[in-house]
Every structure is written in C-alpha cells, then in structure tokens.
Known about the structure:
Elements: H1 4-7, H2 12-24, H3 27-34, H4 38-52, E1 57-60, E2 63-66, H5 68-89, E3 102-107, H6 109-126, E4 131-136, H7 141-150, E5 155-158, E6 167-182, H8 193-198, E7 200-204, H9 213-220, E8 226-231, H10 234-242, E9 248-251, H11 252-262, E10 264-267, E11 275-283, H12 290-309
Helix pairs in contact: 2-3, 2-4, 2-5, 3-4, 6-11, 6-12
Amino acid sequence: MLNKTNLARIDLNLLVLFEAVLEERHVARAAARLHVSPSAVSHGLGRLRELMQDPLFLRQPKGVVPTERARQLAMPVADILERARQVISRAEKFDPRHSVRRFVIGAPDAVTAVLLPRLLKELQRQAPGIDLGVRNLVGQFESALGELDQRTLDVALLPLADIPARFASRVLYDEDFVLVRRVGHPIGRKLTLAKYAQAAHVMVSVSGDPHGAVDKLLADRGLSRRVMLTVPNFLHALAVVAESDLVAALPRQFASRHARRYRVEISEPPMPLMASPIRAIAPQAAIADAGLAWLLDLLQEAGAATRGTS
C-alpha cells in the first residue's frame, strides 16, 4: 500500500485515525473515540492525505464522507490493524482458565439452540470467566459476512456451502429440514405431497415475506401452499406449531431436540427440502488470535457431539 519512503514517514496511529474517521463519519466523534482533540485528528488526516495523494474524506453538513480511494483502503487498513492487534495480543498468552474475554457469535436460533447447551457446559468447565454474546442471524447470511469483516462478529455459524476465500470455516454438523406438527394433528401421520401443499403453514421470515425455498420447490412441481403466518425465528415457529393446526418445515437437529418438550411430531417431508452443513466461519486473519482459535475448537467439539446424538 505504501512504498518504503512513505513507510518511514507514517506511524500506526495514522491508520487507527483513518479507521476511526471511516467508522464514525465525523471528525469530532472520531477525536472523542481516540481521546484526542479534533485539531489533532484534522492534522493527522492532513498527513494521510499527503501520503495517499487523495482527499480521503469530504466535508458534509453533518460530518464527512469517504472518497472512493478511502473506500478502497478500508479493507487493507483493517487487515493491517487486525494483524498488529494480534501481534500485541500474543504478548500475553491466551489462557481460557483465566481469560475474561467476551466473544460475539452470530447464528440462526435453530443453530444456537442445538449447540449452546454443550458449549455453555464446556465454558463453565474450561473458561468460567469468558462471556458470550449471541445474535440471531435468521435470513441475514450475507450481511453476517460483512460483520465478520468489520469484526463486529467474532464467529458466524451459518448453513453455507460456499465460503469466500477470505474466510476460514469448519463444518460443525449437517442439517436438513423435516416436517413438524402438533401431536394429534388432524392431517394424520402420513403426509403426501398434496396434503402437505393443502395444509396451513407457519414460516420463519424476518422480513415477513411469505415466499421462501419451500415455495420454489413446490412451484417446480406445479403446487403452491398457504403460508398463514410468518414469524421471525425458529423457536417462535415451534411454539406456534405446538398450539395450533399449522405445520412447519424446521431444521431436523433443532426440531428433534425440542419435540418432546413442545409435544410435536416429526416426519420426513414428501419431497427433498433444504440441506446444508452448518459451518463456523471467521476471517482468515482473525483466526491467528489464540482465543478465537480456541473458541472454534470448542464449537467444533460441540458440533461433533451433535453428530454423535443425531
């Protein structure tokens, strides 16, 4: 990014300043975040503009906006800073027994409902000081990858088959979908494709859009269904199924672990539904962090336990 002459004229704080202004879109807020004066930020930006030979940020009534050059520099600068932070963090070896770190995991609730019981048990045993933040990512898979890039998520647990090369991933377990309805549902135990299409359905949809992958599969067979209700997460869908005559297509591992508690029946679908491995995904640069690598190992062990009980 910079030649040898320019590297002799730059310090890491200028890149930290660039990152802060890029994220805050405001010089005064960036200054407050960095605990320096706005004039110090303006002076640093002047040095960066000279080095990069670009204005980088243009003033607007409510702050600043990055130039195209600044947008292009965002990822390389973030990568440089992440590597620098990793070098510094390695000065103190990660020890899960004494660590008080907090990791943020993003995943659909059907995935965390499967993995969290085992994961929490291991955290209590191996790392009693570590905390977790869990975010529900139903229907937000692409944006989750962006959040991994920005480091607002440490790990994403997603049903993705193809992962961009900038990420590392580990397969935790394989997941597919089954049909779920309440015990004693009038539709009966054996569901033909026609009966399934005629039933009233509940579907998981964050946006409320009642059309999804199942509808495309039905349309390929010249059929359609009525989605009577959409809900924003899988646990909500399972609760609705247990107390109504609606049916749902839900992840197998998730449904099987909660069937007895919710008094629902599970059956194989009359046509193949969605299937995908559940992967733990993190940026390639970030997994050099010993703490994050340890968390990925723990998640992989929890996934292996899931496969052993499926």
